[in-house]
Amino acid sequence: MIKVIDISKSFHGKRVLDGISFEVEEGTIFSLIGPNGAGKTTTFKILSGILRQDSGSIYINGKEFNSDDVDLKRNIFFIPDNPFLYDKLTGREFIDFILKVYKVKKNDIEKEISYFDMDSFIDSLIETYSHGYRKRLLFTCMRILKPYISILDEPLVGLDPFAILKLKKMLEEFKKEGKIIFLSLHTLEFAEIVSDRVAIIDKGRIVEEGGIEELKRRAGVDKGLQEIFLKLLE
Known about the structure:
The chain is α/β, with parallel strands linked by helices. It has one domain: P-loop containing nucleotide triphosphate hydrolases (Rossmann fold), CATH 3.40.50.300. The protein contains nine helices and ten strands. The strands form two sheets. A six-stranded mixed beta sheet has the order 6-7-8-3-9-10, with helices on both faces. Strands 2-1-4-5 form a four-stranded antiparallel beta sheet, covered by helices on one side.
């Protein structure tokens, strides 16, 4: 379980997050949706330990999380919208590097490499990869590591339909294994299909948070997440 309590963050005097709080149980896909600049990426960077919050606390299974706790951070895998990868490594070398960082030993990874159809690219330099294949490589790392908490910022950008379907299946597998998955999505249809809970964020504050049916009742609408989103941000 992860508990976020009253997190705030400012940059150059501008408040980007303004006291956000939520809880996510194990085996949950939790989507954070909102307009550009709402605070989604900043939230994810704080949850992954890349940034420190100015105030507030995060607890993972009762233990307070901070960005200096390397052992606790090894339970978290963050895939940003525009990931930086080492272009002069091959995909296989990059996977080896990630496994060493996370102190994970796994000898046979060919099945995981094949899952996202990376076989013909895995021994090529990353500099030859398209944006979509860079994402596939990171999803492959995620599949090998099986982290307790996965944080995916705009994961669908650059993916073809095949990769989207494989990602959806993998997220469902992780959920069944009791993992926690955070998603940030502009594709509301996908968020509605896969999410157990959704938080709508705007101007650094959580506007509403809950399951889809719960949010429908609160927003007074009878359709999907797109209508909920538009209604709550009127």
